[in-house]
Design goal:
The protein is an alpha/beta fold. It has one domain (4-298): TIM Barrel (Alpha-Beta Barrel). The chain has eleven helices and 13 strands. The mean pLDDT is 95.
Length: 303
């Protein structure tokens, strides 16, 4: 069980990325985990299974463990490319592979997201081939760039006026230098809020509240900090300094979840407004679905 406001903040918030570091689980056991997670009492927190496009063929042989009541919802991860030409070629390949995969899976599989890194010489704000390649797939597509160019990319996506285009921010990794600063995260969130561009996060958000972690020798961002800041900054029109203050808060006691409101310190947001803001602050990728839940239980937020 969980307070209604925590459910509102975390419903379909975790994209299970078990195949990626630091967990690095092989495809078959990762899909087995997903099949267990979709049937678990806490499945309301689970969003998609992050699956590299290159693994779709292998995954198609393993989907029988899902059914129409417990389908496999996929976030397709396209290969990273270095220039505009390779980007378009990889995007074409991804679109074709997704179409084929969904036809094989019928009611067992739905590919609902595509995630892809955008090289610096690609401008998605201008009319381009990418829109046409994806138009029939009805995907929410999240385009990733380095954190330092987040604001520029979000602005470009807003110019494109494509509701299915969102921004993906990498919030960590397995080394200290992979973690963006709170300033960078704040700017990405505020740009997303300003332009109504959906944003998702990936990596480094295993734990609910920000804190120093020995495994990476740095402070890891907390998913309650990040998702909470996304919701509260939009609702209360925060500036950068206020948003950073929440992102850097390391006290679990600052976060309160009730059946009517979520509160951080003196700031509150009601459940209906959380749900409205979550349309633009969507989810985060995590190689573990167990660790976030265990930590929430440790904070007496999940029972």
């Amino acid at each position: 069980m969980a307070a209604a406001s925590l459910r509102a903040l975390l419903t379909r918030a975790i994209d299970y990325a078990g195949m990626f570091p630091p967990c690095s689980v092989e495809l078959e056991p990762a899909l087995k985990n997903q099949a267990e997670y979709v049937r678990a009492p806490d499945s309301w927190m689970l969003s998609t299974f992050v699956l590299p496009v290159a693994k779709f063929g292998d995954a198609a042989k393993l989907i029988s463990q899902f059914d129409k009541h417990h389908p496999l919802r996929v976030s397709a991860l396209a290969a990273k490319t270095e220039n505009a030409k390779d980007f378009l070629n990889e995007l074409k390949n991804a679109a074709e592979t997704i179409r084929s995969f969904q036809q094989q899976g019928l009611d067992l599989v739905s590919v609902v997201q595509l995630e892809m890194f955008v090289p610096s010489d690609v401008d998605l704000g201008k009319p381009n081939e990418a829109t046409g390649l994806l138009s029939d797939l009805k995907l929410q597509t999240f385009w990733e760039t380095p954190a330092e160019s987040a604001e520029q990319m979000v602005t470009s996506l807003a110019r494109a006026k494509q509701p299915a285009f969102g921004y993906k921010l990498r919030t960590g990794g397995v080394t200290a230098d992979a973690f963006p600063s709170s300033v960078q995260i704040s700017r990405a969130i505020l740009a997303s809020t300003k332009h109504h561009v959906p944003i998702k996060f990936t990596a480094g958000l295993h734990h609910p509240v920000r804190g120093f972690r020995d495994e990476v020798k740095t402070e890891m961002h907390g998913f309650l900090n990040v998702l909470g800041a996304g919701v509260l900054s939009a609702e209360h029109h925060w500036d950068e300094a206020q948003t950073i203050e929440m992102l850097e808060d390391q006290r679990p006691s600052s976060f309160e979840f009730h059946d009517t409101v979520f509160a951080w310190r003196d700031w509150e947001v009601t459940i209906d407004r959380i749900k409205a803001r979550r349309k633009f602050v969507t989810s985060f990728g995590s190689c573990s679905f167990d660790e976030p839940r265990e930590d929430l239980r440790g904070l007496n937020l999940l029972f």
